[in-house]
Design a protein that fits this description.
Layout lengths: L4 E8 L5 H9 L3 E5 L6 E8 L5 E6 L11 H10 L10 E7 L3 H12 L5 E6 L1 H6 L3 E2 L1 H8 L3 E3 L8 H12 L18 H10 L5 H10 L7 H13 L4 H23 E2 L9 H9 L4 H42 L4 H18 L2 H17 L1 H15 L7 H6 L4 H6 L7 H10 L9 H11 L4 E2 L3 E2 H24 L23 H35 L5 H14 L5 H15 L1 H8 L1 H4 L6 H9 L6 H9 L8 H11 L11 H13 L4 H11 L3 H25 L1
Parallel strand pairs: 1-4, 1-5, 5-6, 6-8
Antiparallel strand pairs: 2-3, 3-4, 7-9, 10-11
Length: about 700
């Protein structure tokens, strides 16, 4: 009986072309979420088969064999062993790289022996041809006993035939082979028979996996005890069985290769990929090229994103101005403009950076260079507890920590991924730039060393480097305290260089932006409204008294309404809950050289670091009609303490810069960390360690320069 809706699982080795096939089958009909209970990405989509059956396609994480080591491999493993109640598959499509067929056949033959409905899709046929590898698809199909088809997702070749085979396999026109690829029964005959007496429908190979990994399956306590007893009675050794199976399987694969594949002389001329790797992986030139690529990546995210970010900010500013002119003055108007619209602006302003960053990362992945970046940087990263795949999130953090933390999903090892998440906010993101710019302009003179090296520029570069160096130090220290016991294997296949798939890049950009807006955006909006409330309301009758006093001032003859409105805004902020909080923390921040106004800015800039500048403009009564940052700079320079000394001297300015280098002053980042780690534990730890680090370092700098 034909089902109304099929479920198709795509599995295969990493870099086998599985994601390309997924994108080709589903187009833009994709959804991205998480597998139940884990942070591993779950990509699903829909496709229509030749018999008009609607099929849901599940893109499973890449894995090299049916012996899982990482969290994402367990996701694929449990589905294939039918131990995932939330995910089931009617047909398994095994994607195999034709240019590396021997290695891919290990996983293929293991899945075939599970006796699941299987179709083998051979990708990279063009690359295999360039290598001189000739595959007899019909002979390979006879040896494996399941349908095999050559495809090219990039050129949309063979997709129709693949869909037809999927449909026929789902209708049981193609049956699972009666005989196993290898003699699995011989590995542990008595133990396998014991399991099959308990569960008669199991294949020999599935029974082996029940014996090896039953502790990780959702069996009852009674079933677990019975399986354990079968192991004990038959002296079953998981390690020896696994080793024997792999050896048997590779012997059989050798025979299959001899019958179905013609390989060239190993001394053949190197293909283009190998020639290019001689340059890109060179011990000197490789690192110089890597630095150039990373510099361009960072600059593109920073420069290109700036335009749409400015447009978004301008659009919201225009909308706010228009609504202010149309709507009557009052609390609800203030909530709409300074609460809701400000929150939306704080969410959407990050979208260009997220889309551009992931577009460039996908471009590097598609072309094959991303794997080379990880390979080149692994030695340095491993010395501080990370691995080569941590480089891209860290570099991306210079643009924005939000998409950078989202991109850590590429790191398989949980401990290394967590360390990368914990240190990425120490990279000086673009939101810190307005803070650095105004503070450097305040306290650093425009001097030049050797006639061309600007001191202000050197200080700016030093702040960026300081964050990077401290991130590596923190990672080195934190690796001793995070007790996740998971072995780190940096097994990396260097894929061949390919032209990028622009359709895939666009799909990735849209999906990542959607994840951020609809998942993180909800929490960001709530926190924005809370901050609005703290900044708009004050204790007792203080706000009403201030309002009445300034209304009387406006009614006086010759009153300067604009100046009064600016002073009114500053007074309201000073007497709000946020202002009272700023004054209450003044004793704690005074040792750093900060006054209560800086305290308010520290609190309000938790929404986003760049809010520091706007808060200082409000406190020092700088309006939009003034000369922007120049007027603010002048008023901050003129600010005096009660004893007559300037507020923003060299010591205070440097202390404040250091504080913003290290402090976690971004609620969006905390929300993303919560989403990625599935707990508030790690965001809280980030706030505590980064705030403590910022305080101590700022205190040292202030006392050194005062």
């Amino acid at each position: 009986m034909k089902k109304d809706r099929l479920h198709i699982a795509l599995v295969g080795n990493p870099n086998s072309g599985k994601s390309s096939l997924f994108n080709c089958l589903t187009g833009m009909n994709q959804r991205v979420g998480n597998f139940p209970g884990v942070t591993v990405d779950k990509k699903t989509g829909t496709t229509i088969l030749p018999d008009n059956t609607k099929a849901e396609v599940i893109d499973l994480p890449g894995t090299y064999s049916l012996y899982p080591k990482r969290m994402d491999e367990w996701v694929s493993y449990k589905l294939l062993l039918q131990q995932d109640a939330a995910l089931q598959a009617d047909v398994v499509v095994v994607v195999a790289d034709a240019s590396n067929l021997k290695r891919n056949l290990l996983f293929c033959t293991q899945i075939i022996d599970l006796k699941r409905p299987v179709v083998i899709a051979l990708t990279m046929m063009d690359i295999a041809k360039k290598k001189g590898v000739k595959i007899d698809v019909a002979a390979l199909e006879r040896e494996l006993g399941v349908p095999v088809v050559g495809i090219s997702p990039r050129k949309n070749k063979g997709i129709g035939e693949l869909k037809k085979l999927i449909s026929q396999t789902a209708q049981h026109i193609y049956q699972s082979p009666a005989r196993d690829i290898v003699d699995n029964k011989s590995l542990a005959p008595e133990a396998i028979e014991g399991i099959q007496k308990k569960i008669p429908t199991l294949s020999d190979y599935t029974a082996i996996h029940y014996l090896i990994n039953h502790e990780s399956f959702a069996f009852s306590e009674k079933d677990q005890e019975e399986i354990e007893q079968i192991e004990i009675d038959n002296k079953f050794s998981p390690t020896k069985t696994q080793a024997a199976e792999i050896l048997m399987r590779y012997d059989r694969i050798k025979t299959i290769m001899q019958k179905a594949v013609a390989e060239p002389d190993p001394l053949q001329k190197k293909i283009f990929t190998e020639k290019l790797d001689n340059i890109l992986l060179h011990r000197v030139w490789g690192y110089l090229i890597l630095l150039g690529v990373l510099f361009l990546l960072f600059q593109c995210v920073f420069w290109i994103a700036q335009y749409p970010m400015d447009w978004i900010e301008w659009g919201f500013a225009q909308l706010s101005s228009a609504l202010s002119a149309i709507l009557p003055a009052g609390r609800w108007t203030d909530l709409l403009i300074n609460g809701v619209l400000a929150g939306l602006s704080g969410i959407l302003v990050f979208v260009p950076q997220i889309m551009i960053l992931f577009a460039l990362i996908t471009l590097l992945e598609d072309t094959g260079y991303m794997a080379r970046i990880s390979f080149l940087s692994d030695r340095l990263m491993r010395s501080v507890g990370l691995n080569g795949k941590s480089v891209m999130p860290m570099i991306s953090g210079f643009a924005c920590a939000v998409p950078a933390i989202m991109s850590t999903r590429n790191i398989e090892n949980r401990k290394e991924r967590l360390l990368t998440i914990l240190i990425t906010p120490l990279m000086s993101c673009s939101a810190r730039l307005p803070v650095y710019t105004i503070l450097i302009g305040l306290v650093i003179p425009q001097h030049y060393l050797f006639g061309f090296l600007g001191v202000q520029g050197l200080v700016m570069m030093g702040l960026y480097l300081l964050g990077l160096v401290m991130a590596l130090i923190v990672s080195y220290v934190a690796k001793w305290f995070i007790k996740i016991q998971e072995k780190s294997f940096f097994i990396l296949e260097l894929p061949t260089y390919r032209s990028p798939r622009w359709k895939n890049i666009i799909a990735t950009m849209v999906s990542k932006a959607r994840i951020f807006v609809f998942d993180a955006g909800k929490v960001i909006m709530v926190i924005s409204l809370i901050l609005w409330g703290l900044s708009s309301f004050g204790p007792g009758q203080s706000m009403q008294k201030i309002t009445a006093r300034y209304e009387q001032m406006k009614m006086q003859p010759g009153a300067n309404t604009k100046e009064i409105n600016k002073s009114f805004a500053a007074a309201k902020l000073e007497n709000s809950y946020a202002g009272r909080l700023g004054k209450s923390i003044e004793p704690a921040i005074a040792p750093l050289g900060y006054d209560w106004k800086i305290g308010i800015a520290l609190i309000t800039s938790f929404a986003a670091r760049e809010v520091f500048v706007g808060t200082m403009a409000t406190l020092y009564s700088v309006g939009d009609e003034d000369s922007g940052s120049q007027m603010l700079n002048e008023k901050m320079k003129a600010a005096k303490r009660p004893d007559g000394t300037p507020v923003f001297n060299l010591a205070t300015g440097l202390s404040l810069m250091i504080f913003y280098v290290f402090a976690m002053q971004c609620m969006s980042t905390l929300v993303i960390v919560r989403k990625e780690t599935k707990t508030w534990k790690w965001p809280i730890i980030q706030v505590l360690y980064m705030t403590g680090l910022a305080y101590v370092m700022s205190l040292l700098v202030y006392n050194l320069f005062k």
